[in-house]
Design brief:
The protein contains 7 helices and 10 strands. With about 230 residues, it is an alpha/beta fold. A hairpin with a 2-residue loop joins strand 4 and strand 5.
């Protein structure tokens, strides 16, 4: 078997990152390998979230090239965008749970939308991911009955459903107090140790000092790794 870790799950080469009509980052180079934990840090407005949007094909790339989970971002068709997003897990700052249905139904909705049909397999996978994030007792709760930290754990469970190669998280601790944030970081670290690459945007220096990983810094229209 070939060594999978030689192929990056995310790769940008001399990529211009665009937000709307304007380029926010010029000439970005970035390779994320299986098992990597990569932070994207920088002040507000330096293009961190625009990088995430490029990864999930919400923003088109300017110049240069980019591949995510084997998909070439410069040649992606509209039909392929949902397939790309299934290959990765995405976690947002504001959780983005469906508020009108239970935790279990939130997760079931994603599995059905991504082609799962067998109810017993759906139920089993939901329990697996809820156990992985320590929320297996909360399957029947509605999102509004959960704390912010619990909602974020559910959002991480949702990101894990289709066994992604990489989880992309945009300020996943941004709305949480420091103790709750710590729990979320421990959980992400654990998922990462089990082999899933993680790319995380944060402005919280304490986090990337306490949970070491590679650090890419956005400033002055560039994004470069600090050694």
């Amino acid at each position: 078997m070939e060594n999978l870790s030689t192929e990056p799950v995310i790769s940008f080469k001399n990529a211009d990152i665009i937000n709307g009509e304007s380029t926010v980052i010029y000439g970005m180079n970035m390779d994320v390998y299986p098992g990597d934990f990569v932070y994207i840090v920088g002040k507000v407005g330096t293009g961190k979230t625009s990088i995430i949007r490029s990864m999930i094909a919400e923003n088109k790339l300017g110049k240069g090239s980019g591949t995510v989970c084997g998909y070439d971002l410069t040649k992606l068709t509209n039909k392929q965008i949902p397939m790309l997003r299934r290959a990765m897990g995405v976690v947002f700052q504001d959780f983005q749970l469906l508020m009108d249905r239970s935790v279990e139904d939130n997760l079931s909705f994603v599995l059905r939308a991504t082609g799962w049909k067998d109810q017993s397999k759906i139920d089993a996978r939901i329990m697996e991911v809820l156990e992985a994030v320590g929320m297996d007792k909360k399957a029947h709760k509605m999102p509004h009955q959960l704390s912010g930290g619990e909602q974020q754990r559910i959002a991480i469970a949702r990101a894990l459903l289709n066994k992604p190669q990489v989880i992309v998280a945009d300020e996943p601790t941004g709305n949480l107090d420091s103790e709750t944030a710590d729990g979320i970081m421990s959980l992400l670290s654990q998922i990462n140790k089990e082999g899933t690459a993680i790319v995380m945007v944060t402005h919280n220096k304490e986090i990337f000092e306490n949970y070491p990983g590679r650090v890419m810094v956005c400033s002055n229209e560039t994004c470069t790794e600090i050694q």
